Amino acid sequence: MSVVYAKGFSTAGVRGGISSVEGKKDVAVVVNNGPIFVAAGVFTTNRFAAAPVKYSRQIIADGGARAMVINSGGANACTGVAGFEQVKATAQFAGEKLGIQPDKILVASTGLIGELLPLDAVFAGVESAAKQLNNDEVSGKNAAEAIMTTDTKPKMVTLNVPSGYRVGGMVKGSGMIAPQLATMISVITTDAVVDQETAQEALQKATAKSFDCIDVDGCMSTNDTVVLLASGASGVEARKDEFEELIAKACSQLARQIIGDGEGSSHDIRIKVSGAQSYEGALACARAVASSNLLKCAIYGNDPNWGRVVSSLGTVPESVAQFDPDNVVVDINGVRVCEGGKPGQSRSLVSMTEREVFIDINLCTDSHEEAVVWTDDLTLDYVHINADYES
Amino acid sequence: MSVVYAKGFSTAGVRGGISSVEGKKDVAVVVNNGPIFVAAGVFTTNRFAAAPVKYSRQIIADGGARAMVINSGGANACTGVAGFEQVKATAQFAGEKLGIQPDKILVASTGLIGELLPLDAVFAGVESAAKQLNNDEVSGKNAAEAIMTTDTKPKMVTLNVPSGYRVGGMVKGSGMIAPQLATMISVITTDAVVDQETAQEALQKATAKSFDCIDVDGCMSTNDTVVLLASGASGVEARKDEFEELIAKACSQLARQIIGDGEGSSHDIRIKVSGAQSYEGALACARAVASSNLLKCAIYGNDPNWGRVVSSLGTVPESVAQFDPDNVVVDINGVRVCEGGKPGQSRSLVSMTEREVFIDINLCTDSHEEAVVWTDDLTLDYVHINADYES
């Protein structure tokens, strides 16, 4: 159901002809039918932010959005003034077809950087989508498929609470995924009655511990966009804490699906750092381990190589995370392979047959802060995919 | 000739039986025969620094060294007190065999992290090397081969100046190579007459712009060690500036050889960032680009994907490198593929047939600081090598 699980939304995912892949759907439209039109957003911090990111950031800042147009097959990034004009033209065209003011339409793009979009194909997609808008399961899935690039499957979430409102969502993302940013493109919808401030705050808190804590390949995108749209169609006013929890859950589930479909990956790796003096320190340690190509290759080779865990941990400055290397404990899939910075139980005891790999690092300081980062292994297929992509 | 090109040194490289690879030489000994015994060193900043790093750092600080023992086949890192005892025992044993005080002997190790060394094999190697010490070409090459791990060829340098002294050297390193540290293991020798302060300063300046500016895979080692030994055997007192230049050249040539032999690499990539406000800013930009897995895969696929260049550049905070994304220019192998942050000439004009790839980024600020970082492409063989290494 993805974005139409929450009441008050309709969607469509169609082929406009932007993508060079035969038959690939490449345009999704999501419409908020109200009665309220709250929109929150979190965007990439990349300084080469794409034209649609700059545009949509401004729409959110100006307050409210009634629809969103998303295309795959081209990122419209590093395309200068001409690229920005394409975004405006897309919003203008969509506005006409949907009967909505153009300045209430968000735009997002994903695909190759540095090329203008084939605008005719974008328009064709928007026109066709506008005619097919629906709130059924197929439409929700079509939209989630239309935003995919190297993703191998659509990624969706549906959640509800006893108090009577719903949260739905979709995300695309497989490569160029790194933390300290929003993420790839995600649309989350709710029929709760919330104000913009509550929605924005809930979304920021949720992304900080979900999309910001996954890392496929250490590469930050120019197009990352997470949007939360609220229609108020349930008539239920959301309790702030419950709402934040629900949005956090939706973001976590979508982020987890990105890792599950990381480019070429054969293992999902959960890195948990505990016993730290601060959350920031624990997070810095987890990120350092998650970014190790050597570790990620070892995991691909089913080798629980804890030496590559601690050598990454050792790159984190003491000013960021205080700990004594001689106290550090590392468990891989429950086997204590490193104890007090030295070899512990034999690595041969670690089973690596499951897709999920759990690396638990205890810094053993006198505090108990912890952080979790998810990453993927680095495989032959990752290199294949990214050596061949648009070459 | 490597380390014995400079007068006053003898060396040997032999098999002690540490490495599991049949017939692989795994112990090198370098002896400074004087008349002076100056030693300078730069070591990894990794907090899990290996036992031999901690030990040798102290020997250098205490002043002077007359010999160095290096083994491949095991890093003796994360091995606790027992590992440190192995280093002391090795120095003690080598001292007896070489007739040198043990506290004048440096020790370095490279190989798998988290396992103690087979000390019998280390001793066997030291004993055999002590008997074969020589200053001929074969011995120099044997030593350079004995320190190799995943390296596919020995890496050596020989330099001289008209004023009459020489510099020789060797290095090993292929993976787990990342900047902001010393590097892998390198021994540079000179027969110039220099004091410890001059030697240390020359080495630090040289490593900052050579070993610190290469990055194979973003992974910092626990065992990086660069040592400069001076014998004074030429009788020539080195002029400070000339000496610094020579050491810088030796380090640059050795660093360049590491990139030329980066694990599984098919392209050596020079990233030059110019037009920056500061050297530090230029360096941060070059490092960001050099660490992009996506770019490195694209280069492997012979794709001059400048989108992946600028998206990496865009991750550098403005506080670190001020520049306007809309002014940035990118040339790949002499073709201006990005101009003013937008597409320039067609990527199809870029020839990618040569091993070397030159990525020139001009930030086009009103200043002209620049920095260079070398890296390798990310290939199927890199993943193969690191998925299989000791698994």
UniProtKB/TrEMBL annotation, chains A, B:
Binding site residues for substrate: T149, K172, T183, E263, N386, S391
Record's keyword terms, sorted: Acyltransferase, Amino-acid biosynthesis, Arginine biosynthesis, Autocatalytic cleavage, Cytoplasm, Multifunctional enzyme, Transferase
Active site residues according to the UniProt entry: T183
Enzyme Commission number(s) of this protein: 2.3.1.35, 2.3.1.1
A matching Pfam family: ArgJ
Subcellular location: Cytoplasm
InterPro entries per UniProt: Arg_biosynth_ArgJ, ArgJ-like_dom_sf, ArgJ_beta_C
Catalytic activity: N(2)-acetyl-L-ornithine + L-glutamate = N-acetyl-L-glutamate + L-ornithine; L-glutamate + acetyl-CoA = N-acetyl-L-glutamate + CoA + H(+)
CDD domains on file: OAT
Residues of the site described as Cleavage: A182, T183
Keyword Transferase: yes
NCBIfam families from the UniProt entry: ArgJ, PRK05388.1
Family in the record: Belongs to the ArgJ family.
Protein name, UniProt field: Arginine biosynthesis bifunctional protein ArgJ
Phylogenetic classification of the source organism: Bacteria, Bacillati, Actinomycetota, Actinomycetes, Bifidobacteriales
Gene field: argJ
